[in-house]
Each structure stands twice: as structure tokens, then as C-alpha cells.
Design goal:
The chain contains 9 helices and 7 strands, in the order E-H-E-H-E-H-E-H-E-H-H-E-H-H-E-H. The protein is of the alpha/beta class and 246 residues long. A 7-stranded mixed beta sheet has the order 3-2-1-4-6-5-7, sandwiched between helices. It is globular, with a radius of gyration of 17 Å. The termini are far apart. The relative contact order is 0.15.
Amino acid sequence: MIDGKKIAVVLPAYNAAKTLEQTYAEIPQDIVDDIILTDDASRDNTAEIARKLGMHVVLHERNRGYGGNQKTCYHTALERGADVVIMLHPDYQYSPKLLRAMCSMLTSGHYDVVIASRILGKGALKGGMPLYKYIANRFLTFAQNLLLNAKLSEYHTGYRGWTKHVLENLPLDKCSDDFVFDNQMLAQAIGHGYKIGEISCPTRYFPEASSINLKRSIVYGLGCLKTSLQYRLHRLGIKRSSLFGK
């Protein structure tokens, strides 16, 4: 706990057996009260390893997609009494050592949402992010800041933290079950006026780290632009979207 707040770390997992123990080893156990892994019908022994490590494991009988996996993660964390929930990928691409700082920001009362940005500082390219992904990230972030009337360094990190209040109030059931879920959820948080903080985060790209291919990256990018355009049209009252309320 931090300041009397129960801290939960959720790991949306799919074939993460090779990196799970390494990720788990760096989670600060002195502040984290609950570690939840949702296995999205992996083809390896991810769930078995998670149980041996003492995590609470939720197993999907069929693959529900990245977004569908996160929905289960957040629902389970709230059901188990979490006040602060950090979503951490179990592929060791992001540093679990930043959990303490992210949780402190969320329990301080200053922020409702915290994202670990790969763009703040110079960690992205140094960590091995492909150049085309870096350029796409910068273009999408520029366009989304304009459409969402926000000022974030990036919208595409997979390392995020939320307060209980945010998770209980965002209409996550309206979000996609695919990769664009992350982007839609963040746009919803902006639309609700929640205070979003950022922290610089080094990242690692290596064979075992999860990454979508070029085709899916293009589909994801178009989905992000669509989400931001839907938000702008909704705010202007031109075309209402169920993603952002009635």
C-alpha cells in the first residue's frame, strides 16, 4: 500500500512464458498488494508459471484480443478491492521498477491517470524502437493532441496507471477488444477531464518482446486517428459517439 491505498498490478498476457519471471522479479513487492495475470488463451505455459509465482490468474478459454484481455484485468482488479491499478506488459519491454513512482503520482491526489512515456527523454530509439514506429508515433501524437485538445508526449505506450474512480467511471465496454483499446481508453479519460501525468520510461525491443507487425500497425494507426476524429466531432456536437457518452 501507499497512503492507505491498495495497489494492484495487472498483466495482460499472451504467450509470455519466456519473459514473465524476469518481469515479476522487478515488481516492488513492498508496495504492491495484488498481482493479477489474465492469460488470453496462450499456447505456452504462461498461466502455469504465473501460478507458481503466486499471482492471481484469470484464464480465458478463448482469445479475446488485447483490449478484451485488459477489460478482464481491470474488472478483476476492482473486484478484488484495488484503489490504484497499474497495467504492465509481462514481456519485459517496460521497466517494472517505475511502478513505485507511478503509484506515488496516483496516490498523491494530483493525478487520476499516469502513463509511462517512451518519448520523454531519448529512450525510444536507444531502446531499439524501429524508426518507422518512432516516426508514426510522433505523427499520430501530434495529430491526436490537436484533435483531442491535449498535450501528451505520446498516446501509444502500453504502461499505464489508473485510480479506482477512473476505472469505475469510464465506459470501457464501449471500447474495442483489439489494440486500439488503449487509445480509446485514453481518449475517454481526456473527455472526462481526468488529470493525466507522464513519467519518462526506457523501453526495450528484443525478439521475445511483443510487437505488432507493419500491417496491424497501419490498422492501429488508422484506428487512433478515427478515435480522435470521433472525439472531436462528438465534442462539437456534429456526430455523437457512444464511445464518449450520449
